[in-house]
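Quick check before the chapter quiz. The format below is the same one you will see on the exam, so make sure you can read both the input and the output lines.
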Amino acid sequence: MDTYCLFCRSGRESAVISRLESFGLTAIAPYARRACRKRTDRSTELQRLLPGYIFVDADNEPDWAPFLRMPEVYRVLSYPDGSHALRGADAVFAGQLRRFQGVIEISKAIQVGTKVRFIDGPLRALAGCVTQINKKRSVAAITFGDDGSLLGTVWCSMDIVASYAETEVPEEYRDALTQS
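Here is the expected output.
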């Protein structure tokens, strides 16, 4: 099975997914659970991980013409060689989105010295590289693949549960550190 990516008008993902499903296709528009602060209250909410992007699974490449006629759909993402099926890091990322049912939950992390290590949650499992961390907003930038990747960087929430010096990491977290 191959995965394809449609780019559509942000906010209209659900309508496009309904149309895709009426043709027997499986599609998801991924969400990320994000921490948010409203005055003194801390809560979480689901927000689109990649607004306007829909991942479509199919055994054979669908006829895109009926979907491209929809005013909400802008285009099918393609590589420079014209192929549409996701490959490499893009395909791995799409597979991981399926694994998490299209929702990237908040990951738990600990700070060890100057490094942040993910100990639980999707960020520990995602096959990407953490390129930036914003501790104030509790988010991490994850980059998938290289310059040939269609999907660039996504921001995912994290919760730093503790900070330790290199020599003070508790036993319960040591296994997580050796596996990352």
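If your answer matched, good. The CA atoms of residues 93 and 99 lie 10 Å apart.
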